[in-house]
């Protein structure tokens, strides 16, 4: 089996590894790096549970090969909270709006929402629903998730204003 050396920045940390060329990014993150917050549901691009950011864009890591991430910047759900454990505003909003039950889908929703809010800091409800339409949740229902993302948008704007 052919192997290739890759170098990827994962959650701010430079990682070098030698991987089998057909290994998916999801499997590398989970099994190679132990970042099991990235979940695998369907493994064929339908459920969104495996969503991570690659160079700031939301991608389905079950559909991407690890070797394709060579030289890229990857952010997983483990990279959301601060080093001291403080939750990201999106995570806080999901918590407060009860936007999760089993939590299986949650990493994908969080990462999809993060990429979306970076591009659309003031979305209306329809835009949020559209952005999340490729992510499937089997237990919570979508209303609290949409509310959480709308709330997080406001929190992130507040943080940006305070910083700017
Ligand atoms: S596991 Fe990747 S989209 Fe479902
Ligand atoms: S919270 Fe269980 S699948 Fe979404």
Account of the protein in words:
This protein has 164 residues and is of the alpha+beta class. 35% of the residues lie in helices and 16% in strands. The protein has 5 helices and 5 strands, in the order ββαβββαααα. The chain has helices spanning 25-32, 89-96, 106-119, 125-131, 143-163, and strands at residues 3-10, 13-20, 51-54, 57-60, 73-75. The protein has a 5-stranded mixed beta sheet with strand order 2-1-5-3-4, with helices on one face. Strand 3 and strand 4 (57-60) form a beta hairpin. Bound molecules: FE2/S2 (inorganic) cluster (2 copies).
Features:
164 residues; 5 helices; five-stranded mixed beta sheet; 35% helix; binds FE2/S2 (inorganic) cluster; alpha+beta; single chain
Strand content: 15-25%
Shape: globular
Supply the number of helical segments.
5
Helix content: 25-40%
Summary, kept brief:
The chain has 164 residues and is α+β, with helices and mostly antiparallel strands. The chain has 5 helices and 5 strands.
How is the secondary structure organized here?
Blueprint: E1 3-10, E2 13-20, H1 25-32, E3 51-54, E4 57-60, E5 73-75, H2 89-96, H3 106-119, H4 125-131, H5 143-163
Parallel strand pairs: 1-5
Antiparallel strand pairs: 1-2, 3-4, 3-5
Helix pairs in contact: 2-5
The structure holds FE2/S2 (inorganic) cluster (2 copies).
One FE2/S2 (inorganic) cluster (FES) binds at residues 40-43, 45-50, 60, 62.
């Amino acid at each position: 089996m052919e192997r290739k050396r890759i170098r990827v920045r994962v959650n701010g940390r430079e990682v070098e590894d030698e991987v089998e060329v057909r290994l998916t990014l999801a499997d590398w993150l989970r099994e190679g790096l132990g970042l099991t917050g990235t979940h695998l549901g369907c493994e064929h691009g339908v459920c969104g549970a495996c969503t991570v950011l690659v160079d700031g864009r939301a991608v389905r890591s079950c559909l991407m090969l690890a070797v394709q991430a060579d030289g890229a910047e990857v952010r997983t759900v483990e990279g959301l909270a601060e080093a001291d454990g403080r939750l990201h505003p999106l995570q806080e909003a999901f918590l407060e709006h009860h936007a999760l039950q089993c939590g299986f889908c949650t990493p994908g929703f969080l990462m999809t929402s993060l990429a979306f809010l970076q591009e659309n800091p003031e979305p209306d409800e329809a835009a949020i629903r559209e952005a999340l339409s490729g992510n499937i949740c089997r237990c919570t229902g979508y209303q609290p998730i949409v509310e959480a993302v709308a709330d997080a948008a406001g929190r992130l704007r507040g943080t940006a204003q305070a910083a700017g």
